User: What shape does this take?
Amino acid sequence: MGGEAVIRTWELTKRYGKTTAVDGLTMEVPRGEVFGFLGPNGAGKTTTIAMLLGLVHPTAGGAEVLGCDIRKNLGPALRRTGATIESPAFYPYLSGRDNLRVMALSDGGPGARRIDQVLERVGLTERAGDPFKVYSMGMKQRLALAAALLNDPEFLILDEPTNGLDPAGIQETRKMLRQMVDEQGKSVFLSSHLLHEVQQVCDRVVIIDRGQVIAQGRVDELLRQQEAIQVELTEAEAGKAEAILRGLDWVQAVRREGTRIHVSAPAERSRQVAEVLAAASIYPSQLLRVSATLEDLFLTLTRDNDHA
Assistant: This one.
């Protein structure tokens, strides 16, 4: 991928008895980006994050976070990293602000001013004095994000940080993450199942399934590979058109559904599709450029992997 990496893994593996949670995971996360880490439930995302944070020991392979080996010398990297993982854990009877004070004192870290800053940043200022036990799931997630930001880390590892947030909260979090990367030079490793949000905020993604990488790259490049052209024809024309389109070397695949043909090809080839069909005296009643979404790509890849 080029450039300095904040995470590197090579053949990273974790087994629990006969179950392999992470299976030879190799990836590189560049500095200065929002990097999406995607996969269906049970794919190994949280186990991978736990290994990167030193909470779980790998069975095989290795990894570095900010240049530090996770097996031998992770401490310096953790001091420069903020993280949220799984369900946030705080003292239930303490207020949100007091929970952050306890964390700051235990780390010998920031004072009251910084605590107020992060509470404001995550939108919890008005509820900072309420006990954690009365917080909604969304508020708990906001407090967890505030805790991750306490020491102004250069790198954030976030496991489902928008879980429980309403649409406005999700949008605010997305904007905040982009600002931290684009304006402050931070790096973010983001695990999420909200694919629409990931598509809008992430520069690159890696998709894993059954503990293995099944796709990785820049979001725009991956989506371009999934672009398609939809052609509507008469019943009499569809069979002939399908055969013609299958013979084009720049068409990846052709799928026919009745009188509709789905052509896997770059959207800018739409005109050429029309020209090729016209040369055979076939004139579509409709020809549409179909833009792919990250959700389309995710479902296609994970479905194909299930059938592999």
